[in-house]
Amino acid sequence: MRTSQLLLPTLREDPGEAETVSHRLMLRSGLIRRVAAGIYTYLPLGLRIIRKVEDIIRQEMNRAGAQELLMPVASPAELWRETGRWDFYGKELLRFKDRHERDFCLGPTHEEVITDLFRREVRSYRQLPLNFYQIQTKFRDEIRPRFGLMRGREFIMKDAYSFDADEAGARASYQKMYDAYHRIFTRCGLTFRAVEADTGLIGGSSSHEFMVLADTGEETVVYTETGTYAANVERAELLPPEEEHVEEFRPLMAVKTPNCRTVEEVTTFLKIEPNRLVKTLLYKAGDQTVAVLVRGDHDANEIKIRRILGVTEVELAGQAVVEKITGAPVGFAGPVGLTGVRVIADHAVKTARNVVVGGNQADTHYVDANWNRDFQVEQFADLRNARAGDPSPRKDGVLKATKGIEVGHVFMLGTKYSQSMNASFLDPNGKECLAVMGCYGIGVGRAAAAAVEQNHDDKGIIWPFPIAPFHVHLLPLGESSAVKETTARLYADLEAAGLEVLLDDRDERAGVKFNDADLIGAPYQVVVGEKGLAGGTVEMKTRRTGEKIKLAPADVPGTLLDLSRAFRTPTT
After folding, report:
1. pLDDT tens digit string along 260-318?
2. Which residues span the domain enclosing 73?
3. Dist CA 519 CA 513 (whole Å)
4. CATH code where residue 512 lies
5. Are residues 377 and 269 in the same domain?
6. Peptide bond into 129 cis (omega under 30)
7. 192 within some domain
């Protein structure tokens, strides 16, 4: 491909809308352009990368025995109502009516549609197991789309759905997809980790996220360095702390804490550590209000709170509700004397002694409060976020923390969808049985953006070879016949060798060509200059290391093929 024939609008300056490294560099290198909030056009260079990621996915899905199909973007509401997700999914589901006033949505995922296909077409256990996948555009009406392709509203996704006759078969299908995802992300050149995760809006019994490790990631992952445990911080389990030495109870006492509402303000004023304070957080959970107690140095985990309460959503109560229940402004709620609400607490509160809690009146806190003497707790549970330094729930070390970007997610669905939609088959005895399902997603654009987050420097992107838009950036400098002839011959020879070449044939200064080549990030650059040709050589640069070597033009294709051989993974 010649640059003169390619729409490649590179930018010298960082766009004002750019929020992350990948967002900035993908805009600057001419890969994407914004159409609306969270909606992007893939320009030719960006689409080449997307197609390469898709090709790797398709090869590994086929290798794992999945069958490709394509489902519609628009789904009728009646399918979503069968599973209850028409209402449960909330405002992320973009709903609309057709000309006949029938309800539809743009599919953010396709469990309903694929389960409907299964119940219409599959009759016997002899047809199982089955695994279907598609690579398709999705739409989720994110409340705050951001970070370019990391959290868009419209995005390209690979979603797959397995159907098995029993739980054992479903787990085998799940493992096949888990292994396939390892191969996919390894072939894409990503550094990643599979972690236990919450099932969220998809539902099911268990799931794993595939997290690309990057400092700019939105998610926090905790893991043991020497053990096997790894989990998203939202999902990470925590064991109840062991009882340490128990202080003697001291008398409860109310103290004035003027204008001290936050943990930092209260602990600074009282000259105590945050772990000596217990926060009382009032949550609205459907029609009820619940008080959740966590230590001052811990963060409440709303996913765990939802799970304990058996509800789909919780939100912090507003000021009016807090004042009505506690009689005090926000910041002074506490469990002592609190009535009319259910009180639950994190395990760490159970072992805390002589703590500070809100006094349920303005500018007042209690010191030396103790549960079961000064206040009651209906239930203790794991209600907080894990953090570095916590013991592993597998008892295999101490947790460490890192940031990650979710690029894939695999779910064990069980019979959640097959039961609600009556997706059944006949077993060997003629008995009707529900299919046991799994579902498996990969964000294609997000995987490409995550590769940028992991592979860049201050000059631009450094693409992993398997998903690079071009393998070689050919840079002729000068207008002599020797430069032109050598460039033309190299271009033909490299393409004949199976390498993808971007030839910068623009009438631009050397500095402009070098800057754009570093920005675009092809793994290798070959510079054809008059000075080098006078000595019979061209210069080859490895983008990742910056290493430069002189080669005879005839030796360039073979050298590049040798260097790239390690990246050419067999597909069978």
Report:
1. 999 999 999 999 999 999 999 999 998 899 999 999 999 999 999 998 998 878 999 99
2. 16-237+401-453
3. 10
4. 3.40.50.800
5. yes
6. yes
7. yes
**Do residues 207 and 330 share a domain?**
no
Residues 6+ away with beta carbon under 8 Å from 39: 152, 153, 154
From 119, 46, 142, 4, select the one nearest 418 (Cα to Cα).
Answer: 119
Q: Which residues contact 486 (CB under 8 A, 6 or more apart)?
A: 476, 528, 533, 538, 553
pTM of the model: 0.85
On the question of pLDDT at 570 being above 80, the answer is no
Q: Residue 398 carries which DSSP code?
A: B
Percent of the chain predicted with pLDDT > 70? 97
Per residue in 396-419, pLDDT (tens digit) is: 889 999 999 999 999 999 999 999
Rounded to the nearest integer, the mean pLDDT of the chain is 93
CATH number of the domain enclosing 223: 3.30.930.10
Residue 389 domain-assigned (yes or no): no
- Are residues 284 and 377 located together in one domain of the fold? yes
CATH code, domain carrying 353: 3.90.960.10
Burial of 499 (0-12, 13-18, 19+ CB in 10 A): middle
Residue 402's identity, in one-letter code, is T
Residue 231 sits in the same domain as residue 120? yes
Note the pLDDT tens digit of each residue in 93-114: 999 999 999 999 999 999 999 9
User: What DSSP designation does 225 have?
Assistant: S
140: nearest Cα among 132, 152, 130: 152
Assess contact for 214 and 450: CB atoms under 8 A. yes
Q: Backbone dihedral region of 484: left (phi > 0), alpha (psi from -120 to 50 degrees) or beta?
A: alpha
End residue of a domain, out of 453, 483, 516 = 453
C-alpha–C-alpha distance, residues 211 and 447, integer Å: 10
Q: Is residue 394 part of a domain?
A: no
Count the domains in the chain: 3
Together in a domain, 185 and 282: no
* Cβ neighbours for 500, distance < 8 A, ≥ 6 positions apart: 1, 468, 469, 470, 471, 472
Which of these three, 391, 421, 453, is where a domain ends?
453
pLDDT in tens, 512-553: 999 999 999 999 999 999 999 999 999 999 999 999 999 999
Percent of the chain at pLDDT exceeding 90: 84
Confirm whether 387 is domain-assigned. no
Same domain, 418 and 485: no
Least confident segment among 43-47, 84-88, 242-246, 503-507: 242-246
136 and 212 part of one domain: yes
Give the helix/strand (H/E) hosting 179.
helix 167-187
The span from the CA of 133 to the CA of 437, in Å, is 13
140/14 Cα distance (integer angstroms): 27
